[in-house]
Amino acid sequence: MTIGRAFRVLMLMVALAGSNAKCPPQDSAPDGPRRVILDLDGGGDDAWALVMLLANEWRYNICLQAVTCVHGNARVPDVVVNVMRILESLNRLDVPVYVGVNEPLLTPGPNRNESHFFWGDNGFGDVDFGHPPSMDALQPVHAVERMNALFHQYPNKISLLAVGPLTNVALLYKMYPETRDKIAGVYILGGNRHGVGNTAGTAEFNFFRDPEAAHIVLNNSPMPVHVFPWETVLVHTFPTRWRFEAFEQTTNPAIEVLNGVEYEVYAEEETWTPCDMFVAAVFLNTSILQTVQSYRAEIELQGSVTRGMMAILHHVKDVSKHNVIVIDRIDHQEVQRMLIALNHA
């Protein structure tokens, strides 16, 4: 090896040491990994989505390019802490984390009463872990700016998984409209297709927290977005007893963290709903999709009890006008297998 080549190899190793090593800096090979950005709001189900992606990078040939944080289940400073705790537990501080928007597009946002604190005040059941996590993965660039830069660096190579309120994504669309055409695909946990809500009204939580952002994203994405709505979550719940028994003995340190969180949060609940995890599973393994349908959908912005609800316009038959692909049913047993496999990931 020549001195010049050795120097270049050394510089590449140094660069990779400070970056996400699973994500190659260049797409030189046709069989390179599928890149993904996870935009989340820091609840326990967000953590399950994060763990699902990181545990399956090699199996499904994907790489987590970045984690971006948004308000929702918790305030953004708490979201960052929760993400860092999971990354630290997995020794994956190579994954860069970016701080995003801490409030809805229109403020003040909706009242956050007790029913909207399912994951506690800090998103992790207010559990005292005894020490703060490392902040080594936290980056100084704003989440929206970094998302824009990454989509330009890897045009049509990065998919976006948005499992919190869509404020970061809406700002990306409005600040950098040319970037919309550079996104490989958008997968959302949010909305509803039958008017079944999990808030004080008829809206699903993520859309309820920022209806205008949801409206912007659904009406400005150049391709139909994959939507995993609340009603589909309800069809695919797990017994809470099964959840605790399945993960009681685990060698996965991130699941040990989540055991502490969910022993607190799910103590009185009969069903376990790892909502955001489903979106990660669908992205990883599209073979689990069983029933999907495209529609034209709009977000209700005015109603006193329906604000934030996703309304399906069934009369719009022209597929060219459809803006969502609603996921109605997935292979529940295969998802269960993917979950159990995390125990020893």
Automatic annotation (TrEMBL):
Residues 36-335 form the Inosine/uridine-preferring nucleoside hydrolase domain. Keywords: Signal. Gene3D superfamilies: Ribonucleoside hydrolase-like. One of its GO terms (molecular function) is hydrolase activity, hydrolyzing N-glycosyl compounds. Pfam families: IU_nuc_hydro (PF01156). It comes from the Eukaryota. Residues 1-21 form the signal peptide. InterPro entries: Inosine/uridine_hydrolase_dom, IUN_hydrolase, Ribo_hydro-like. PANTHER family: SI:CH211-201H21.5, SI:CH211-201H21.5-RELATED. Belongs to the IUNH family. This is Inosine/uridine-preferring nucleoside hydrolase domain-containing protein. It comes from Anopheles farauti. The lineage of its organism: Eukaryota, Metazoa, Ecdysozoa, Arthropoda, Hexapoda.
